[in-house]
Amino acid sequence: MKTYEVIWNAIRVQPWNWFFNLVGITVLYLSFQIPALVLREFFNLITGDAEVDFDFWTLVAFMAASALLRIGGELGIVLTNVPMMYNIAAWLQKNMFNRILHRPGAAALPNSSGEAISRFRGDPEQVYIFPLWINDVIGSVVYSSIALVIMLGIAPKITLVACIPVVFVVLLTTAMTRHISHYRRLSREATGAVTGFIGETFGAVQGIKVANAEKTILGRFRTLNHERSQTALKDHLFDELREAVYSNAVALGTGIILIMAATAIREERFTIGDFALFVYYLEFLTEMTWMLGYIIAKYEQTGISVDRMVTLLQGGSPRQLIERGPIYLAGQLPEIPYIAKGREHHLEELRVTGLTHQFADSTHGIQDVDFAFERGTFNVVTGRIGSGKTTLLRTLQGLLTPQSGTIHWNGKIVDDPASFFVPPRSAYTSQIPWLFSAPLRENLLMGMPESETDLEAAIHAAVLEKDLVDFDDGLDTLVGPKGVRLSGGQIQRTAAARMFVRDPELYIFDDLSSALDVDTEKTLWERLFAQRQATCLVVSHRRPALRRADQIVVLKDGRIEDRGSLDELLERCEEMQRLWKGDWGDETSDAE
Amino acid sequence: MPQWQLALLLGTLLFTTIGLELFSPRILARFIDDAREGVAIEILKNSAFLYIGIALVRQVVSVAARYLSERVGWAATNALREDLTLHCLRLDMSFHNQNTPGQLIERIDGDVANLANFFSDFVFRIVSSLILLFGVLGLLYWEDWHIGAALTVYAIIGMACLFKMRSIAVPQWKAARQASSDLFGFLEEQLSGTEDLRSSGATGYALQQFYKHAGNRLKQERIAGLKSIWLRNTNAFVNVLGYIISLISCFYLFNDGAITIGKIYLVIAYTGMLSGPLRRLTRQMEDLQKASASLSRIEELQLLATRVHDGPGYPLPSGPIAIEFRELTFGYKEDEPVLHDLSFRLESGRILGLLGRTGSGKTTVARLLFRLYDPQSGEIHIGGTDIRQAKIAALRDQVGMVTQSVQLFRATIRDNLTFFNPEVADDHILHVIEDIGLLPWYEQQPQGLDTQLQSGGQGLSAGQAQLLTFVRVFLKAPGLVVLDEATSRLDPATEGMIERAIDKLLARCTAIIIAHRLATVRRADDILILDEGRVHEHGPRRDLEKDPNSRFSELLRTGLTEVLS
Known about the structure:
The complex is a heterodimer of chains A (592) and B (565).
Chain A: H1 3-13, H2 15-31, H3 33-47, H4 56-101, H5 113-154, H6 156-203, H7 205-210, H8 214-266, H9 272-313, E1 349-358, E2 365-374, E3 378-383, H10 389-396, E4 404-409, E5 412-413, H11 417-420, E6 426-429, H12 440-445, H13 455-461, H14 465-470, H15 488-501, E7 506-510, H16 518-530, E8 535-539, H17 543-548, E9 551-556, E10 559-564, H18 566-572, H19 574-582, H20 586-591
Parallel strand pairs in A: 3-8, 3-9, 6-7, 7-8
Antiparallel strand pairs in A: 1-2, 1-4, 4-5, 9-10
Helix pairs in contact in A: 1-5, 2-4, 2-5, 3-4, 3-9, 4-5, 5-6, 5-9, 6-8, 6-9, 8-9, 13-15, 18-19
Chain B: H1 3-37, H2 41-90, H3 93-96, H4 101-143, H5 145-166, H6 170-192, H7 194-199, H8 203-227, H9 229-255, H10 261-303, E1 323-330, E2 339-346, E3 351-356, H11 362-369, E4 377-382, E5 385-386, H12 392-398, E6 399-402, H13 413-418, H14 426-436, H15 439-444, H16 462-474, E7 480-484, H17 492-506, E8 510-515, E9 526-531, E10 534-540, H18 541-546, H19 551-560
Parallel strand pairs in B: 3-8, 3-9, 6-7, 7-8
Antiparallel strand pairs in B: 1-2, 1-4, 4-5, 9-10
């Protein structure tokens, strides 16, 4: 995808605002013509060279009028550029966000979330500023064309010779853009490293405090900051050099006018008014070429930002970045789609064959996993750490992309697990659930219409009802970032309640009870099993779960070691025996 | 180069540029008068070459100055970022419980970046504009005092107007900054929670929330933009006013024969130059408005004080240390105690199993030990010293904690284990890894300690990540270790594997093992059961096990008979 396509589509986000912005900028530029012409006439008036007979006070009046024109232009610009900029930013952000939301959820970002923020923040800025630059260049070209026509009318030879350095400059700049893009890329990457690190640091703030590691963390931050400033300085130095070249072109042009005009002035073919006009215009002419060069450089830089945003789409078509669609920045927000549970969601049997997901950078993952279960059964996946339990749950739900294998739901093949395994078909409580800094109610509903749900029952099922009484604001309690205002167990049960609210056909839990005490865990299982309809797929190595299981899937090094009921497995599966005994069971207490 | 030398060099360069800038129009004025008087063409051409030469020199000097000023700007803003980061790291947990990492990115980086444009330009633009302003006015007096006086009055009026308009939009810009930091805070949080969003079918909801935040940002920016239009309008008036004043003055002086055409050209060129600094000053004012909004947000952040004050530095003993809680009462909110009048003692070298339901205050006990919070009343003594008397850093070096949640950085294994401390020797790290029984895992790592881990520990299972935190803690050889549900993510087999290592490590220190599962506290010497922030039961484990009426033995019975069979 070419950068200009992105820019063109950015303009189309707010075409009218773009157009009126262009009008505003052009009016602003035209307002600068008046002082130039007034000055010329003023000099001609006092040297007696005037061709048109203007009264001195008329000239002053013209000068005053230019201020009004200028204010009009400025007003047009301010009224249009803000909506344009932030609509374009929101458009790009929405498209990136939307794509990320449709990525396999457990591998949605190429990097840390803090680093991704640098792509959400700085890179759209590069794009939204570009249409404004285009307008600036157009306004400047209009101004310069008028200036050139007037100059050619006065002294064609001087005009042409003075413009040569200006042309030279544009060529030079175009040749320099390669370096610019290299340093710009480095500079953006260094920025991403800094924001990513800030994000990670404050995500781990308690750990850092406890480890007394503030100083060493800061040392690392300092290194990243230094790298960033170095790359940014190099990046900007090129900008500066280019600017210097332009300014020199003005000086050179003015010098040439001086040399060429020397004789002409003596012979009174070129008035002082003409001279003043030429010097005044030359500055604008150079500014125009400066801008032409600048916009070429900006174009390169925008290209880099586009690349960076496309990277965030991770394999999605680059076109998704510029997909057109509504952005609701004012007025009514869109309805959140709600799918009521119907016959088509009903689960009879789920069958997994040959499911494989290997992580690129390690030997971990799952290979060739086969199992099946029917409605109403309780299925436990167990195994040692790193044996692939979580990977299995994620791959099944499309939260990681399966590399091979098929999933059958009621005998029908599931094409896209990621969009299929969502409520009301299935819901998932991950091992380390993520809560959002919003009221508890919102964390449970996350957009579900409250009238369609039974919050109370879900809270009861998740054994959260007692905690709720203690919360000051009940369901309106703010849980804080990541749910930090709740205890570990409360976070886990809130996530469980979020799952129950969705009343799915299939419950998927990853190690639900790891933060729960014995009593709470017991109550939770009891309440869950009381729901006869529940079909469950859970990761656990707890005895209550294993005992209750209709089927246990034992994983070892990413492969299925064995499958069956607890008694069968304890009989024949060595890995199961080891996992079972590791727990502090009757054996040890008997020994004491 | 030290900052003051940089500043000195920058100043010299600035003065040179401005001097040359002031000198250039004089050449043109001289040229005009010479040309009209019919001076030899050679002299005129020399003036032209001089003009070009000076312009070239000016550009070289100007590039150097801008480069330097930007360097100074980066140094200043990076120092500010570092200060803020350290400050925020030291702020109480109650602050972090209200601010997402995304919001902090925006406050530490976004707000400071707004200042950066201001900083690097400020030195250059404001200072050079002011010098240029005074230079031009001075030279105009030199030419003719009437014109000098007229334009001085103009400059004063102009500056007064612009300064009056300066802070007109600050509150609006501040609101706009807040809206932007809310947006990015929101996005960061959502991007971290994609797994939960997807599997909860909440993507539509996330998008709707995004529109809400982005819409608010647009609204705030629009209000701020409209408000600052006054500044731009004032600027336009001031600019044109300057030309009109100088035209009128020159017109009358010329009619009186008091001034040559060349001088008029000079005056008008200087007037144009005056509007330059005035315009740049205005633009800086506009930036200043945005910067003041950022600055006041930064100040707000800096003014936040931690309620946990560092102690005078009483020494803490090394090796296994005894702990004592004395009549301690604490609540996250003043009037809602989580711990009530808690007193207990743990002798040095012993292991305490701390049990209780979720929310009974177990984790709070650990947080207080690290002085993440201070109690409302009562004291904690470690090795006989009130922990508030010791340096916080010394305390946290003496106490280590392994928690259930693990945060990893996108960095090498080494940096993740040492928190980027380059002083920890590789041998020492490897020794601890071996002690914990992680050597088989370590040997699979392609680049050993230099292997890069992904952010959030992608590619590591939650259990493996938890093992890494054991290494983190035991690298420090603390005198007291708190294991807060440290093994809850480990399967029984792995737990068994590292058990001996934990035994070995705990032999060197006092330990508190927080658990809601009984299996975890089997190595405890003492048991303390908390119930709603009060000691429900406390005593040696063996005694409690033998007492059939104890809550502990009751728990053992329920725990072991399992839930449902």
